[in-house]
Specification:
By secondary structure, the protein is of the alpha+beta class. It contains 17 helices and nine strands. The chain folds into three domains: about 150 residues, Sandwich (Jelly Rolls); about 80 residues, Winged helix-like DNA-binding domain superfamily/Winged helix DNA-binding domain (Arc Repressor Mutant, subunit A, Orthogonal Bundle), CATH 1.10.10; about 230 residues, no CATH class. It is found in: Membrane.
């Protein structure tokens, strides 16, 4: 029985990167002093002031290391994920724990005796180097935390945290999905902000087009993040501080926009084209409320999209190349004022009929501006960016017409508009494949778009659910996924012109 236990411990220790390549004799000695312990959610692993007698390795679950401020507020120092070890600083330092550790969820740990680890360090230089590397990494993390709390905005700290959770560096294009392993309250404490600030920052990052939040899933928009980081000088914050925050002089700074003015003709076309998409997405979200589809999320996306439309509208106004475009932009502002008031009303049939008409007027005006910017660019790349950007709009337009139709609003026109939008999307997808053949990354992204497009077609067709409410919910969800994949493709077409 004892031999079987030691064999299990040997296998477990050998799988830990810290001990890879350590001679079997020394691993055997470590195995003799190793315990495998399960902890329930909320159970304490060690307290502040406890003697540090073991090195801990997390096999499964999640553990937080934390401390309390003078005021009694908890500050999370580290969120330990499976495959990570902790406790070495105290084991080789003051030998008293300066923090406490608690299982955030049911967890299993290997508790490795400190005396055995010390003997192994004396005998195996490789292990000593690895421990030194781990301690150096912790020291640098502490320095980084101290610097971030003083010199980096909440948006920067949250983005730093999200990027640090990735197993590999962020790809320059496409989309990367990250599932948050910890609660927002724990993450906020780890970053050093309040949960309310974290929620606001996630909205800001979403408004800036850098992430899409879907519950615990965060869809990182690689191209937008890469572009924003590349455009930022070392001394310039990625995000300005909000109104009411203090700058270095101790005075409150005015809030500045999160939407950066694009610096290339294709970037301007992309930005203008997004207004078309938002015109349709706003209507879709409002109709989702009328259908009772995820009312909380629909209301949030509606508010975020309205704020983003206004912010982008202000940026576009500074980029107008001539008086004609400025005149159209002024008309967009007038239409928007009426459209915004209509979106603020509770969804009901009379308001829906008004929205149907005004939505088409706003779309036509925003499309006119986008075409004007494409004409001013006078570049084949501009045409591809505009065409790909129209796909963003169509992904939302298709869902919008379906929801109008299911509500009995202008049924014949909704059905015709739905069919026309679907034909246009399919035709453009074929056309966009032509330049993609020379760029494998775009070709692969268009394949992803095509798969989501086929899913939307299937959902709208006979293969969709018979229950209309369920089908409407699915159409709304699939159109969002199609939007994300198409947006990644638009970023790739824009990058072609760089």
């Amino acid at each position: 029985m004892q031999h079987h236990r030691n064999s299990e411990m040997l296998d477990a220790l050998a799988s830990i990167p810290l001990f890879t390549g350590i001679p079997a004799r020394h691993l055997g000695e470590l195995a003799h002093s190793t315990r495998r312990v399960g902890y329930d959610k909320g159970q304490t692993i060690f307290h502040v002031g406890d003697a540090a007698r073991e090195l801990f390795f997390l096999l499964s679950g999640q553990v937080k290391r934390a401390t309390f401020s003078v005021g009694g507020n908890e500050r999370v120092l580290e969120l330990v994920a499976p495959g990570r070890h902790f406790g070495e600083a105290e084991l080789f330092g003051p030998q008293l724990h300066a923090s406490f550790a608690v299982a955030v969820e049911p967890s299993v740990l290997l508790c490795i005796g400190g005396d055995g680890v010390r003997r192994a360090l004396e005998a195996v230089p490789l292990l000593s180097l690895r421990i030194i590397g781990a301690l150096a990494g912790r020291a640098l993390a502490v320095e980084s935390d101290a610097s971030a709390s003083h010199f980096r905005t909440g948006c920067q700290r949250v983005l730093d945290y999200l990027l640090a959770q990735l197993a590999t560096p962020l790809a320059p294009q496409g989309e990367t999905t990250l599932t948050l392993a910890a609660s927002k309250q724990l993450i906020a404490s780890r970053i050093g902000i309040t949960p309310e600030t974290l929620s606001r920052v996630l909205r800001d990052l979403s408004d800036a087009g850098m992430i899409i939040v879907d519950g615990r899933n965060i869809h990182l928009q690689n191209a937008c993040i890469t572009r924003r980081l590349a455009e930022t000088r070392p001394e310039q914050p990625v995000f300005p501080r909000r109104y009411g925050q203090r700058d270095g002089s101790g005075t409150a700074s005015r809030r500045r926009r999160l939407v950066a003015a694009p610096t290339t003709p294709c970037g301007i076309i992309n930005l203008a084209g997004r207004q078309r998409m938002l015109s349709q997405r706003l209507a879709k979200c409002w109709l989702q409320l009328g259908h009772g589809i995820q009312p909380g999320r629909s209301r949030n996306v509606l508010a975020q999209s309205a704020a983003l439309f206004e912010e982008q509208m202000a940026v576009i106004a500074t980029l107008a190349p001539n008086a004609d475009v400025r005149s159209i932009q002024s008309r967009v502002g007038e239409i928007w004022n009426s459209y915004r008031r209509l979106l603020a009303r509770d969804p009901e049939p009379k308001a829906a009929r008004e929205l149907f008409e005004l939505n088409e007027i706003l779309l036509a005006a925003t499309d006119e501006i986008t075409l004007a910017f494409e004409h001013a660019a006078d570049s084949p790349h501009g045409r591809w960016v505009n065409l790909a950007g129209r796909q963003l709009m169509l992904s939302q337009r298709i869902a919008k017409f379906y929801l109008f139709q299911q509500w009995g609003i202008h049924v014949a026109r909704s059905r015709a508009g739905l069919a026309e939008a679907m034909r246009e999307f399919a035709t453009a997808l074929t056309e966009l494949a032509v330049p993609a053949r020379a760029v494998p990354e775009i070709e692969h992204q268009l394949e992803r778009v095509s798969r989501h497009w086929q899913l939307l077609e299937s959902t709208l067709g006979t293969a969709g659910p018979a229950d209309e409410k369920r089908r409407a919910t699915l159409v709304a969800a699939v159109s969002e996924r199609l939007l994300r994949q198409t947006d990644a493709a638009v970023g790739l077409y824009e990058a072609l012109s760089a």
